[in-house]
Amino acid sequence: AAEPAPLGPVQPPPLDRVQPRAPAPPQAQRARPTKVPKWVVRYVEKNRRALAGLGCAATRTYGCGSNGCAFPCRDRRWTVKVTADPSEVGMSQFVIGLRRRGVSVPGIVKFHGVYRGKDLVVGPRAWVIVREAVDPVPRETPSSSPVSRAISLLARASAAAADRNEAAEAGDPRGVSTATRRFREHLTRASRLPVAAPIAKTMWRLATKEGLYLEDVRRDNVGLVDRPDGRRLVVMDPGGQLTYPRFSHFPRMVQEEF
Questions:
Q1: Kindly report the CA angle at 230 between 197 and 62, in degrees rounded to 5?
Q2: Percent share of the chain, pLDDT over 90
């Protein structure tokens, strides 16, 4: 993947002028207005120069959630995510590691890297993830469209994955078997839809080869990207509800500073 173009020296506006909406170019993700958490404002201010080195001025956002915000890069093929969610960081690293070993996980966004900046004195520990930009699924997408049907099947598979994980933690083999069967059935149906096939195959591969059952595949966590074989859905945040105690083989937290 091409590296984001560095911005070089910038003269950013005051942080209190950070805007919750970014002007989106054609085929770029669009965000609903959201409030920027105060800790994100302080983190961006403390790491302004390092973010600029990644090609991100961080003066506007694509949107924010409870764990952080996504910012556009100068090279609009990339997005910078400031996150306080360790599962998102761990899974992003894990996916990067899989791809470096030649393992195909086409249903998850492409990552450029995961970085640590200067930590806040008061506030959550945060990291920076550079990933490819995606187009959100329009809210007005008809329920009968292939994209909506695909998301519905993937969300059902994700719910079955959550049930399977809960049953495994509770030591309920019958519950594990029932949930795993539902998980497989929903992914089989989803894999027949070209737009959903990458995610379906990736979820199945992670489950059967890595023991990772993704629980947070839903409309707000998938986006559309252009691939050589057409328009496809990908998972934006592969962490979601996953927690470290559940998987002993999770990678160590990122130590690379930017």
A1: 90
A2: 54
